Amino acid sequence: MRITGPFGIWKFPILSRFLDLDEEAKEHQCWSCGTSFHVTQADYCEICGTYKCPSCGTCLCSISPEARRAVEVEMQAYDLWDPPKRKKKSKLRTFISWDEFLTWLKLNFPDLYQAYVTGAMNFDQVRAEIYRRIGRIVAVTG
After folding, report:
1. Distance between CA atoms of residues 21 and 12, nearest Å
2. How far apart are CA 49 and CA 104, in angstroms?
3. In whole angstroms, what is the distance from residue 38 CA to residue 54 CA?
4. Longest CA–CA separation in the chain, Å
5. What is the pTM of this model?
6. What is the spatial distance between Cα 135 and Cα 132, in angstroms, rounded to a whole number?
7. Which DSSP letter does residue 14 get?
8. Could you read off the pLDDT tens digit of each residue along the chain, which spans 142 residues?
9. Contact at 8 Å (CB) between 16 and 28?
10. Domain ranges of the chain
């Protein structure tokens, strides 16, 4: 499959994981050197989920961050991006009980806790405010 984007025409190696694709879809073009190659000639990268170019050895991991982001955005737009599952779980996805959350909120954001308990803010408003404040902290320290 070919999709035109800000960096030219892209062929998506991620499609080659499906066996029922036609031969044209199994032909790919390197993001780095532009060489065309067939899936059977390439090694699969477990990190980014794409194929490595047999000529230069690069995959999606090896291109610049800007170009990689452009490819990922286009693949997401066409519902093609399926990054490999990470083995390490994110700390942000830790599940806690409601009581633990309220205790955490009371300790870290007492003003938001008070607003929630009194009914001045609902849960969605509190959550949005927490994300806004955390984003500001990351922007200042990052």
Report:
1. 12
2. 37
3. 9
4. 65
5. 0.36
6. 5
7. G
8. 444 445 555 454 444 444 444 444 567 777 777 788 887 778 888 777 778 888 888 887 777 777 777 766 766 665 555 555 555 555 555 566 778 888 888 888 899 999 999 999 988 898 888 888 877 655 555 4
9. yes
10. 2-77, 91-141
